Amino acid sequence: MAFDPITSSKSRPGFSKWQHFLAVLGPGMVVMLADTDAGSIITAAQSGAQWGYRLLGAQFILIPILYIVQELTVRLGLVTKKGHGELIKETFGMPWAILSVATLIVACIGALLTEFSGLSGVGSLFGVPSWLTMLFCASGLILIVVTGSYRSVERVAIFIGLFELVFLIVPWLAHPQPQEIWTGMLHPALNDHNYLYLLIANVGAVIMPWMIFYQQSALVDKNLDASDIVPARWDTAIGSVVTQLVMIGVLIVTAATIGKSNPNAPLNTVHQIADAITPYLGNFNGRIVFAMGLSGAALVSAIVVSLTAAWGVGEVFGFNHSLEHHPQEAPWFYTIFIASVVFAAVIVASDVNLVQISVAVQVMNALLLPLVLGFLYALSCRALPAPYRLHGSYKILVLLMIISLTCLALYGSISAALAPPTP
């Protein structure tokens, strides 16, 4: 699965390879389903509407890139049995760990605002006021996490996230033409500034800093170890394919519908995307299917980013931070989780203008990504024993990929911050 010599692991006693895989399955799938969040879906919709199928090839290329980044977290989590924040503290010192987790919290809150805004938009499609949608969603998330173990939360997250798979069905309803898809993929517009901007946006929609923290913490909380490395890699690889297929589905349906009739249609909100798609899919099919897919994406992402914030702080400051602990045993962990969910829900329910906040979050993510990817690379070279450490040509490949991703993310996010507001 990875481009290095580590290709085998022992199955657990009494387990077949298939049973071993099912026992390990979860962290990779959850974080990948969360990757296709409300912002990512909007980005894919804009790509299809404005450029047809010309950005479709990039979605396939991003599959191995996403896998390579997250596979490093698999190594670190399984071999060291420590979360990302804790490993940074032990390897580089407390000041760097505090800096890392502080920026992580800001990114997680920004992501929560995005997910809850998407859920509020879904509610408004059916006439549900924002405050009621937020009350229901925030209460549900808190109930799921506070009353469950890691495994129960993981199962619920996967179940909710699988609603995203409706985006794999929707393209068939739009009747895309295979010849047009193939022609579009073969003719990217690399000399066009607007095309390059959306290309960068798609990269930013796939590589999220909080994903690294979440998956490593989840592997530790699930009590997995180095013997689980092969099935954990398969979990990550399958999740990488699934999340990108969802992005591909959204891009195809908008390219086959809006891209043909109104490529200049604004697609910056849930309402705008739903209103643009439903004339082609039918009011019932369009709204119901779109609401199911976006709700699944936003809810699983909300679970992931809120837990990531609580895990990260707990790892750095050393208090109990496991879903296996009762709230009385880990009060700070659950307090941080609940506080982040409630804060984001209140902000969205107040109907404030989130445009400026979204721009600020993009800039923060751009600043955070070099830090997180830099730590990820350094830890993979220093904190692992020799058999699992990055080495040789693969080490160089990963370094070049991280530098490229960092440059793209910085360019795209800063450009978005400096761009004039959309009327």
What would your notes on this structure say?
With 423 residues, this protein is mostly helical. The protein has one domain: Amino acid/polyamine transporter I (Up-down Bundle), CATH 1.20.1740. The chain contains 19 helices and no strands. α4 packs across α18. The radius of gyration is 21 Å and the shape is globular. About 1% of the residues have low confidence.
What's the helix and strand layout?
Layout: H1 17-24, H2 27-35, H3 38-51, H4 56-80, H5 84-92, H6 94-125, H7 130-146, H8 150-161, H9 170-174, H10 178-185, H11 193-206, H12 209-221, H13 229-256, H14 258-261, H15 270-281, H16 283-317, H17 331-349, H18 355-382, H19 392-418
List keywords for this structure.
423 residues; mainly alpha; Amino acid/polyamine transporter I; 19 helices; 0% strand; globular
Helical residues, percent: over 70%
Distance between the termini: 46 Å
Determine the structural class based on helices, strands and strand pairing.
mainly alpha
At the first level of CATH, the class is: Mainly Alpha
CATH fold description: Amino acid/polyamine transporter I
> What is the domain tally?
1
**Largest sheet data:** none
What string, H for helix and E for strand, traces the elements in order? HHHHHHHHHHHHHHHHHHH
The backbone outline, from C-alpha atoms, is globular
| Unreliable residue stretches | 5-9
- Spatial extent as radius of gyration: 21 Å
β-strand percent reads under 5%
Number of H- or I-type helical stretches = 19
- The pLDDT mean sits at 84
Number of strands: 0
> For this structure, what is the CATH homologous superfamily?
Amino acid/polyamine transporter I
| Architecture per CATH nomenclature, i.e. the level-2 architecture | Up-down Bundle
